[in-house]
Amino acid sequence: TQLAGGNADMAKSKNHTTCNQSRKWHRNGIKKPRLFLRNMGFAKKCKKKGLKKMQANNAKAMSARAEAIKALIKPKEVKPKMPKGVSHNLSQFAYITHPKLGKRACARIAKGLRLCGPKAKAKDQTKAQAAAPASVSAQAPKDAQAPTRTSEYRSLSANMRTEGLV
């Protein structure tokens, strides 16, 4: 029985398989020497033995690794925490006594004081300067024009020049 596209027997045949080659050879009447078949049997047997040995070795290696890790891991220590809150001295003390952060604590604290100190003073000065022109503008009559920013800066710079000379 032929199909339109090809041979029906060809579609049903198992000649194109790649597994169980020795069975196919016998079915098709192709004889292989006994020695070859015997060697194939030994190969399968040895393959299974090797696989079992490999699995056993892997299990041993994994158990040894787990034991080594358990031996290396120490009981957890309580980590020192930095206190959060208002008390600055307490936080500085905790910073100094901290095992990792305390190594260069003095230098870091001094640097922090250097960096943070002038900013507070500058803010106070700017507040004082902002308050002074507001009081001046409040005293000025309504017809007078409010001083501009550039005139404020000029007057301030003139005051600073005269302060040094007095």
UniProtKB/TrEMBL annotation:
Keyword Acetylation listed: yes
Keywords recorded for this protein, A-Z: Acetylation, Cytoplasm, Methylation, Phosphoprotein, Ribonucleoprotein, Ribosomal protein
Phosphoprotein in keyword set: yes
GO BP field: cytoplasmic translation
Pfam families: Ribosomal_L29e (PF01779)
MF GO annotations: structural constituent of ribosome
Superkingdom of this protein's organism: Eukaryota
Biological function: Component of the large ribosomal subunit. The ribosome is a large ribonucleoprotein complex responsible for the synthesis of proteins in the cell.
Family as reported in the entry's similarity comment: Belongs to the eukaryotic ribosomal protein eL29 family.
The name this protein goes by in its record: 60S ribosomal protein L29
